[in-house]
Structure to design on (450 residues):
């Protein structure tokens, strides 16, 4: 079967696009993108060519641009050209040159696709990634550390991007080029081993091939198997997650004992937390939380995993809608659903005036340990109401106070060392009251939301 037939079969089997769709081909002028152009031409697809000149290689960059212009003339298709000041962009955004080029390239491609969509056309972007590219990606992901998803290599589709050459090896593409006497230009940087992908391509894989001659064929088979494995893997994860995770507002609640009894619980935790910007290197610290005391936590850039009694709680770090808020000794104000809580310490002398405002709590600072935990009350909570020597469940206390159902739903508490120190706006705990020996007080004040 010819490469053209296999190309069309692959597109049809993967449902990458339809015959009448408009295809924007990302063309560098190299062997892979030239092959993609010829295959689309021989298949009768409606396509246009887009070329990026990153202006990084002087005359060689201009040579590539002129070559792609010749391809456009050959196929008589519309041409899209964009020149970038890549070095300036990289410097302004503190990116590597490769990262900057990628951002610039795909942002421009998306703007092209959007313009076609605005014109009422169904368009997608085609890149010329092939099987060897996918193999290299598999190996790079494996060695740098990844989940199952990274072992699938390059996906055939990603939103509006399609990769219809992933079935073909580099050798098959070269044979197609030779058979059809197609010209191409070569980026000399592809031979430099200072880039990670080039090292895998030029050094590592050829070395492995000396021991395992069928390495590429075997890895291609593995890519297919890993895709099937991920389907089963995700199905099992979904079932485990549904049994393990309780969703409360913006938070995820995971019972510690249930986590520890879950098969492969470390992997399960990683898969749950990676969606919230936690990295594999943080997993040992998260595992330690399963055996830590309340108040310990691990942060990602956007979220926090907190150990609270028998639970791990995942919540966004900067949100007033979260249900569990840690207060550190350096915090002076925190926002929560009921408003703002202000925290301060001050000297206390016998005879000082007590506060009568229900929204203010004065506590013996010597009895308080940080971090404090601000959270909604829950069934089973108890405290020692000021003036009482015996504990009382909050549910019973609220009945005594004649709180309505709506009022009870708005009650938050402050904890220190798993002990409630203040039922906010209602009563402090007797164990933390100011005594004759108190030298410093902690002042908590709630400014209610309007």
């Amino acid at each position: 079967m010819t490469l053209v037939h296999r190309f069309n079969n692959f597109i049809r089997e993967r449902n990458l696009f339809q015959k009448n769709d408009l295809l924007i081909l990302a063309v560098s002028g190299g062997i892979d993108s030239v092959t993609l152009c010829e295959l689309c031409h021989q298949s009768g697809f409606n396509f246009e060519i887009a070329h990026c000149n990153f202006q990084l290689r002087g005359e060689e960059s201009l040579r590539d641009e002129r070559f792609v212009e010749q391809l456009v003339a050959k196929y008589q298709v519309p041409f899209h050209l964009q020149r970038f000041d890549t070095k300036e962009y990289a410097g302004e955004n503190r990116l590597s040159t490769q990262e900057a080029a990628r951002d610039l390239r795909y942002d421009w491609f998306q703007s092209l696709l959007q313009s076609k969509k605005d014109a009422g056309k169904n368009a997608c972007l085609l890149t010329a990634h092939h099987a060897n590219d996918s193999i290299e990606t598999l190996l790079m992901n494996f060695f740098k550390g990844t989940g199952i998803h990274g072992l699938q290599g390059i996906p055939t589709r990603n939103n509006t991007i399609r990769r219809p050459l992933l079935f073909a090896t580099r050798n098959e593409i070269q044979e197609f080029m030779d058979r059809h006497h197609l010209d191409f230009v070569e980026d000399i940087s592809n031979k430099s081993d200072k880039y990670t992908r080039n090292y895998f391509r030029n050094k590592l894989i050829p070395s492995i091939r000396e021991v395992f001659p069928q390495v590429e064929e075997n890895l291609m088979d593995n890519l297919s198997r890993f895709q099937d494995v991920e389907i089963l893997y995700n199905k099992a994860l979904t079932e485990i997650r549904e049994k393990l995770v309780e969703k409360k507002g913006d938070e995820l609640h995971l019972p510690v004992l249930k986590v520890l009894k879950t098969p492969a619980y470390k992997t399960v935790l990683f898969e749950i937390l990676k969606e919230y910007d936690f990295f594999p290197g943080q997993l040992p610290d998260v595992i330690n939380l399963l055996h830590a005391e309340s108040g310990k936590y691990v942060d990602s850039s956007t979220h926090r995993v907190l150990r609270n009694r028998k639970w791990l709680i995942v919540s966004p770090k900067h949100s007033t809608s979260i249900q569990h808020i840690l207060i550190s000794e350096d915090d002076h104000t925190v926002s929560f659903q009921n408003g703002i809580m202000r925290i301060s310490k001050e000297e206390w002398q016998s005879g000082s005036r007590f506060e009568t405002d229900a929204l203010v709590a004065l506590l013996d600072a010597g009895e308080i340990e940080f971090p404090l935990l601000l959270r909604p009350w829950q069934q089973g909570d108890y405290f020692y109401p000021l003036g009482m020597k015996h504990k009382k469940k909050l549910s019973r206390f609220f009945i005594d106070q004649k709180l309505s159902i709506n009022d009870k739903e708005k009650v938050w508490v402050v904890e220190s060392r798993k002990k409630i120190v203040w039922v906010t706006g209602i009563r402090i705990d007797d164990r933390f009251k100011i005594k004759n020996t108190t030298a410093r007080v902690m002042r908590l004040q709630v400014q209610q939301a309007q």
